[in-house]
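Hi R.,

Here's the input for the zinc ion complex you asked about:
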Amino acid sequence: MGLYRTDAIVLGHRNIGEADRILTLFSPVKGKMHAVARGVRRPHNHLLGGTQLFTYSNFLIMESRTLDSISQCEIKESFYKIRTNLEHMAYGLYFAEILRASTPVEDKNQELFSFFLKTLYFLQEWRDLELLSRIYEVKLMAIQGFAPEIFRCVSCGEKLVGKMRFSPALGGVLCARCLEKDVKALDISRESVAALQIFIKKPYRELIKLNLPENIKKQLKNITHPFILHHLDRKLRTLDFINDINCLGVQTGLTGGK
Ligand SMILES: [Zn+2]
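And here is the predicted structure with zinc ion in place:
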């Protein structure tokens, strides 16, 4: 038992006791992990800044048989733009929830860490957060080993021709000859398949200017959510929060008319 240092992003926290907080951290060397920040809710506590939600910090942590505890932290990137905008905050919470749900504790994954950190930088700047969500969902599932099969038929492996449908259960697109393999498969157009292919192939910096028609975006949402929920096999609480925020946006103009 001793002290160790690690960079990590704060994925979530919950208050315990009078002034403590248990953090869910995501570290490039330890994966998803938990640690307690003792006394952090007291005024002017030295751990407060570096343990805010989404903050990327360098932590000095004391090992323990039960729960590691944070001794010091130094902010590397505060991501305050995410925390100070309700809409960005809602999507950030959603991104963190899918990451947490799809990642076991202490499963080191440097590629996943770099991807999530990059996502937070783009979340601060991205305008169409629904589109960013679709791209994030597909890229995340691909890194986690559940890439949807969108380049060939998921059943027969042949090239996609004619009418197609998307099967969340089988994990990809069914060609015209294989439609009966999943009677619950969902409608998907050739344009939507092309969009999913671009999401996988292109980096964020090339996708940030992408404009998709509303009908395609709607269809993609109807496909990616059942696909993710099928793999995670649990309800995502933050989806309700996003829906609430978007309803509020319609009434107040908060979301820039989206
Ligand atoms: Zn087929």
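One thing worth noting: Residues 250-258 have pLDDT under 50 and may be disordered.

Cheers,
M.
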